[in-house]
Design a protein that fits this description.
Blueprint lengths: L4 H7 L4 H18 L9 H18 L8 H19 L5 H21 L5 H8 L3 H14 L8 E2 L5 E3 L1 H4 L8 H19 L3 H12 L4 H8 L3 H26 L1
Antiparallel strand pairs: 1-2
Helix pairs in contact: 1-3, 2-3, 2-4, 3-4, 5-6, 5-7, 5-12, 6-7, 7-12, 9-12, 10-12, 11-12
């Protein structure tokens, strides 16, 4: 059972006005995180975890360090949400194995075909029903919690950026390292470009435009569950292609 974050807030040294001021930020982050969650996970629970992250940010923030509170709080809020969700332990090992098998199926087919594989084609390759593949894709929504947009934070509370941002190191002194990072960015860009149109658009709206699940669904005039499925498929394709390219390189 999730503790009542609002009761905890009222007992702390924070003014209620501070909680109310940044609650829209918590809700916004919860709305984006919903892209990676199955339908049975209540958004109110995610917001509850996020409020604890907000309280932590209010306690630890140091304005003198030179960055905005909203930036710092966003990292803490999202981290608290993910930590809370992981304590639920709703991703059994068998589910991870199935997701990995489907991911590899997409990668193998797309390497052979030279185009994006369909769910039907993957089902035929793995000799299972299409419904089973669709079920695995639903489970994959959970595993995208650690996908390309997860912000990391170090022991001092500083953001180390997202995996996408980390592909390019603007301060790299070593020329070889700088070239390597640029090549990684290009490889990822090519992989994204090869996604089916709808999946590519979902990725663009989510990672570049930073829209929430509901907003993307409204833009594309599709259900939220369909947007989540397209996002999961896109992540599986990208992971499969990038892992295959890594194997080919080494």
């Amino acid at each position: 059972m999730i503790p009542n974050a609002y009761e905890a807030a009222s007992r702390g040294p924070w003014k209620q006005e501070q909680i109310e001021q940044y609650l829209p930020l918590v809700k916004r982050i919860a709305g984006r995180l919903a892209m990676s969650l199955p339908p049975h996970v209540a958004e109110d629970d995610i917001i509850g975890y996020g409020v604890f992250g907000l309280l932590d940010a209010l306690e630890r923030f140091e304005a003198a360090r030179g960055f905005k509170f909203e930036t710092y709080a966003s990292i803490r809020i999202r981290g608290a949400m993910i930590d809370g969700l992981r304590t639920m332990d709703w991703v059994p090992h068998s589910a991870r194995q199935k997701v990995k098998r489907v991911q590899d199926g997409f990668a193998v087919l797309e390497y052979q075909l030279g185009r994006a594989a369909t769910v039907q084609e993957v089902a035929e390759l793995l000799k299972v029903e299409v419904k089973e593949i669709e079920g695995v894709l639903a489970q994959a929504q959970i595993l995208t919690l650690t996908s390309f947009d997860e912000t990391t934070i170090d022991g001092d509370g500083d953001s180390s950026g997202t995996p996408l941002n980390l592909l390019v190191d603007s301060e790299a002194q070593d020329a070889y390292q700088a070239v390597e990072k640029q090549e990684q960015k290009q490889i990822l860009a090519v992989a994204v470009e090869k996604l089916p149109d709808k999946e590519k658009l979902v990725v663009a709206l989510y990672y570049q435009e930073e829209l929430t699940l509901k907003e993307i669904a409204a833009v594309l005039k599709l259900s939220e569950s369909r947007i989540s499925q397209l996002h999961s498929q896109a992540i599986l394709r990208l992971r499969g292609r990038l892992s295959r390219q890594k194997k080919n390189l080494f």
